[in-house]
Specification:
By secondary structure, the chain is α/β, with parallel strands linked by helices. It has helices at 18-25, 34-42, 53-57, 104-117, 147-155, 175-182, 215-230, and strands at 2-6, 28-32, 48-51, 65-77, 82-85, 95-97, 122-123, 132-136, 145-146, 159-167, 189-193, 206-212. The longest helix has 16 residues, at 215-230. It starts with a strand and ends in a 16-residue tail after the last helix.
Length: 246
């Protein structure tokens, strides 16, 4: 069996033991970006992948997938993981730049801007700086808009970033057991609290990164798939089919 995992630090808690477990089972691991993992799965280059809701959704009408309802990554409220910056103060918003323009987190930011603020962002011309910058948080530079916070305010459910997806034609059984072994079983969630200046009179924003599948995460995934369909990213709304249940 060959599986694909993303090269994203946020997913590390659910991949803690993956090398050892895969070596014991004789499974091969391929590393790629979060959304490339979905493309590898779609092209039948791997049989299972940790990928984004977009990676799952792109298989609709083409491949029969199952989501493994186990370890995953989802953002609930303020997480300081992905967001939007406004270099020019947010005036005349029309275009965006991003270090990962095709990624699901970038798409989620754009959908939030459209749904909450009625702002439709398009790619900035090659070599030009967009009216805003969308991407992961690096170097501790907090974004003006936190996508986990805005999504939770809009949808009232967490924003799934990475879920395990397996092709139904995969010959390996009990993949749910293996996925559970990959993860650090002690870490169910990571609490996040905003760092505010000592003299500030406002309370810090708070949230958490979730590492386990719940009914709330499933609701967030369903909302993400519906929203991508509404914005014509997906040709139809994929059903959420769970491994071992559907």
């Amino acid at each position: 069996m060959t599986i694909a995992i993303p090269t994203r630090e946020l997913a590390e808690p659910i991949l803690t033991n993956i090398r050892e477990v895969c070596a014991q089972r004789g499974w091969e691991i391929r590393s790629a970006t979060l959304d490339q993992c979905g493309k590898l799965l779609l092209n039948n280059s791997v049989e299972m992948a940790l990928t984004s809701p977009l990676g799952y959704g792109l298989g609709v009408g083409k491949v029969d997938y199952r989501i493994v309802p186990g370890p995953c990554v989802a953002l609930q409220d303020y997480t300081n993981a992905f967001g939007i910056w406004f270099p020019d103060g947010g005036r005349g918003l029309a275009t965006y730049s991003s270090p990962e323009p095709g990624s699901f987190p970038t798409l989620a930011c754009r959908m939030v801007m459209a749904e909450k603020f009625d702002v439709v962002l398009t790619d900035a011309p090659d070599g030009a700086m967009g009216d805003c910058v969308i991407g992961p948080v690096t170097n501790g530079l907090a974004p003006a808009i936190d996508v986990g916070e805005e999504w939770f305010d809009l949808i009232e459910s967490p924003l799934p970033i990475a879920v395990w997806v397996v092709r139904v034609d995969a010959e390996e059984n009990n993949v749910d057991e293996a996925i559970a072994l990959f993860a650090d079983e002690r870490l169910l969630e990571h609490n996040v609290s905003e760092v505010v200046p000592p003299m500030s009179d406002r309370m810090p924003r708070e949230g958490k990164v979730l590492y386990r599948w719940t009914s709330d995460v499933e609701e967030g995934l369903d909302a993400a798939l519906h929203t991508m369909f509404y914005h014509q990213i997906l040709p139809e709304i994929p059903a959420i089919k769970l491994y071992g249940k559907d």
